[in-house]
Amino acid sequence: MKALLSWFAIAVLADAPPVIAQSTLTAKEQALVDRLQQDVNRRFLVKFPEQRPVFMCPSAIDRFDQCKRVSHGWFVVESISLQHGYPVEKPTIYRSKFYFVRFDDGTSGYIPVSERPSFLTEEPEVTLAALAASQAASRQSCEERGYPKLNMTKEEVVATCWGTPRRVFRSRVALTREYTIYDRGRFLTFENGRLVAIH
Can you spell out the DSSP letters for 82-128? Predict the structure, then answer.
């Protein structure tokens, strides 16, 4: 138990402020610890475990041979655990960081914070439905605004679905020619301020 409270292994409990001396951590490390602390008491869902496995360990140590693959399920982050402070006397960084989690089925353990991208805050179906709705609204808006047409001015093109270009190039040979570059390899050619080609 004493080892858990030493500089080697500090558990940051959900109900208590971090035990870490604020002045010893680097600004970058402190910002990371603060971000991790924001996840405490939040519910998450393991995202697509069949595609990218997430592992849970029985203790907050780097013995990954003892970790087991997590199946799909909801869990709560109860605390964070910071391990292997460097330097030992007054750590400026922690080499190992873990979430202590408890699943709805009662199982608990430690998940490395590197697995954070695999956490969802809602069911994947809800996320996909929201994404589909957003894409449909974007397509509808695009249809209403229309597409670039020959002989439009640059201002008229910006008002279309294509919007503002990512880059603009002026021809060195023909000083009246201008190219506006969009995403996905699309670009437009303007001559004397009027659209003459859509690529």
Answer: EEEEESSSS-SEEEEEEEEEEETTS-EEEEEGGGGGGEESS-HHHHH
Task: Calculate the alpha carbon distances from 104 to 38, 49, 199 in Å.
Answer: 20, 16, 54
Q: Name the helix (H) or strand (E) containing 198.
A: strand 194-198
- Dig out the tokens for 181 from the structure: 């570059």
Nearest CA-CA partner of 94 in 138, 30, 178, 173? 30
Residue 159: both structure tokens together:
């008002």
Q: How many CA atoms lie within 13 A of 195 on its CB side?
A: 20
Quote the CA–CA distance of 69 and 78 in Å, as a whole number.
19
pLDDT tens for 16-68 read: 344 444 458 888 888 888 989 999 999 888 866 566 678 888 888 766 778 88
Q: Which residues contact 159 (CB under 8 A, 6 or more apart)?
A: 145
Count the helices and strands in the chain (H runs, E runs): 4, 12
Per-residue pLDDT of 105-131, as tens digits, reads 898 999 988 888 888 877 667 777 877
Domain ranges of the chain: 2-123, 143-198
